[in-house]
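User: My advisor, Dr. K., asked me to get a structural model of this assembly before our group meeting. I'm new to this, so sorry if the format is off. These are the inputs:
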Amino acid sequence: MKDHSSAAAEGEAMTSQYISFLVGDRFYGVDIMRVREIKQWTPTTGLPNQPPYTRGVLNLRGTIVPVHDLRARFGGPVTEATDTHVIVIVRIGEQIVGVLVDAVSDILTVASGDILPVPSSMSDVDSKSLSGLVNTETGMVALLDLEGLFRTDISTAA
Amino acid sequence: MSDDDDFKALFFAECAELLTDLQDHLGTLSDGDGDAETVNAAFRAVHSVKGGAAAFGFNDLTGFAHEFETVMDRCRSGALSITPDLCLTLMRSGDVMELLVESARDGTKPTDPLIERVLSELSDWLEEGGSTARKAAAPAPDMEEPAIPTDDREVTITIAPLEDFFSSGQDIRRIVKAARDFGPTDVTCKGTVPPPDDGPLTACGLVWTLTITTNAPPSKLEEFVSFYELTADVTLDDEAPAPPDPVEELEPPALHEPEQEAAAPKAAEASSRAVQKSLRVELSRIDRLVNLVGEIVITQAALAQEIADIEARLDMEIPHSMEEMARQTRDLQESVMAIRAQPIKSVFSRMPRIVRDLADKLGKDVRLSLSGEGTEVDTTVIEELAEPLTHMLRNSMDHGIEPPDIRTAAGKPAEGTIELSAEHRGERVLIRLSDDGRGVDRERVLAKAIEKGLVSPDDQLQPEEIDQLIFHPGFSTAAVLSDVSGRGVGMDVVKKKIQSLGGRCTLQSTPGEGTVFLITLPLTLAVLDGMTIRVNDDRYILPLSTVVEALRVRDCKIETLPDGGQILARREGYIRLISVRNALDIPNTGTDQPEDMAIVIDTETEGHVALLVDELIGQRQVVLKSIEANFKQIDGVSGATILGDGRVALILDVSALAGLNRQRSAQRPVLTPVSQELEHVA
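Assistant: The format is fine. Below is the predicted structure of the whole assembly, which you can bring to the meeting.
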């Protein structure tokens, strides 16, 4: 795995790997280096007075980890989670956060030159939460900007 | 370089310990309980700090320590007798050492005027002692150092490390480096390392010989050598043409003694010190252990549950290994928690310095007496306690204790007394800070509170209620904010801090006689005795220490106020009823008997309130987990824990819940019942 900062400078020679997953019929991707593990859905403990997309917290080997519903985060309905749903555990800064998605799809190797910018005309929630778009054989994969998606949680931390 | 930084960190950690010990010994001396060994121990502490400071080139610290040490040495030799005045100077010197260590650590130049003052006090003592002993005895080398350069000569220093050498952070490379400052140095090393099966390798079998070509004055070299005397057998062979320094008569260096002979008394000394030896372990490692044990406790509980199910199904009894394991797990948890426990002394010992500083600044005479310093409390609690305690102490010094003339006029001893004590009370620790000052000035407090709009002039307040006003946010009685207690923070900050530690803070004051602050704190922030309750299918934990009693709602009299707020009748009056379901905004998912139980909770900010819950499940000890670590702080919730089945349960913060509930109701419920408008619900 090559360093990202130099990847941009050296253009297409540099590649990164992304884990792609499905929410509904849309594909999303997260830098594989950010993913700690992928686990099957288990019921969470709800937290009071949180936005609907925050599904609560779960016990990840003794650590309390919040779980966010990606579908609901993008304005969709709250996911009716079942055993087939998965939680992608990612690192955001110093924090460990779970993201509820429908299924994990693939591992993508993407050359940095193939990452297309997000058009500015996109809706507010999307443009702040995506870091780029990639075209693959199965369709477009939107790369998530995890900080942008869940930054509000961090900044309001007391 | 990072190697050096590590050593520095170690040095500062050690300094803190040494200086605490030093103040202890000096305290003993000033109480008149000290003996020769106490003086020696104090001397060694100063000497060790000096040695380390010199190795790192902290010249201010080394210079001062040298002066201090010289005076201590005089006490040791009996040339100076220990008087209360001398003790005061020595204690102040200890304070200055702390100041200097701080500035060495921060890399700043020490500027406190106290340093100069104490330095001159020290030299006064030297002169006084010098009239009986010889004036030339133990002079500061800087003063003595002759400007005339002597010719280069060869000096041989041998260093044979003792047991403590490496563990005390000494490094032969650094010594050599320091020696090269004197001039070109040759190093040879002799000796053999004992075979590994020859018992534990404590002392290193090697002896280094440093041959330095130098023109440095002998005293400089002696000083250099003396830094290592405690941890190594050091000999100095100096063919200096200078006349033998009479100082050495007082403390003869062990000149070329065969190692075995020299090792014997030193080893005895080392073993007597080894008794109190402790191991320094990074807190993060202990925390990992605490977490692991916490998980084992949970797994064990889950296993016990599963086995109980199997037993029931198969109608058989599995031998009580399970109980045995439960006991062992509990013991294990307790032992691990005990590692985190520290005597509260580490925070108490900072207080005498604050009192001395303030007594000077305020022109007050104050004696601080400490007791129960050995009381053990969790490390985290101790760290967090320093700030509120300091603040309370300042408050007592500033507002409580009167100036000497007023005290004498009131028929009290001119010297004020502040007592600080700690003791265990069940699962909590009780800290008591009392002074014999003037007590809370109720008239002024009330006037101020009215002026600030905290209370209305028509309110009829009980004296105790007036006292409690000093905890009100933004309240500060000092008309002029002094740099002593009024740094813009008031007692409310103290109270908040104590509360955030899961503690309570109360005050009792008697006008003219003094004020007592009582703080109770949980012994640890890592485990908590909790009451498990259920709302819908979710379980929540209430801190057991806050639970007063549990009542069946159907047996109680509940009234509804015009604004929809509910109150519950109890023997001593009405208390607010808070629905956990409403406060946390949980929809009712059709439980059979919702809100069947009312649990009376004693909150710090809201007095007694009753929480409506669906079921009371029972008591259990829970391991505290942070939600903030990976998320953020959530109103009404103070933390989380993991239950036997692996699910997360939230720990409720009842004071905050009461606040949340109030935000939800349109209007604040009135506490006095207005009977005509009441309708019965239950």
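One thing worth pointing out at the meeting: Chain A has one domain: 4-155.

User: Perfect, thanks a lot.
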